[in-house]
Backbone:
């Protein structure tokens, strides 16, 4: 259960933080708000093992799977072909796997 709490806190924190900045500066642009909120949820998913590393036994697999899932969802948002979802999943998986290196440099709004 602590793993679920860490993930939920991380998703809520990053999703709300990213969305709040977009809502303040670009009020009324709902497509942008959804995109920025999705990016916040992705960062929250891959940041959860970095926030509490003792809870996650195989953090690299968790980050890889959720990175690929987020990438495929964004690929489907931007393109209607299955190839777009595949390329998005591949890029998201790579970003998820490399998350321990780049997550420290994400500026939290």
Residues:
């Amino acid at each position: 259960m602590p793993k679920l709490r860490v993930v939920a806190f991380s998703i809520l924190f990053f999703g709300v933080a990213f969305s709040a900045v977009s809502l303040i500066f670009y009020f009324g642009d709902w497509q942008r708000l959804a995109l920025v909120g999705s990016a916040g949820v992705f960062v929250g998913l891959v940041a959860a093992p970095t926030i509490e590393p003792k809870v996650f036994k195989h953090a690299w697999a968790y980050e890889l799977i959720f990175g690929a899932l987020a990438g495929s969802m964004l690929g489907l948002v931007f393109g209607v072909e299955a190839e777009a979802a595949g390329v998005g999943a591949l890029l998201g998986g790579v970003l998820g796997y490399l998350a321990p290196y780049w997550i420290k440099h994400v500026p939290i709004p």
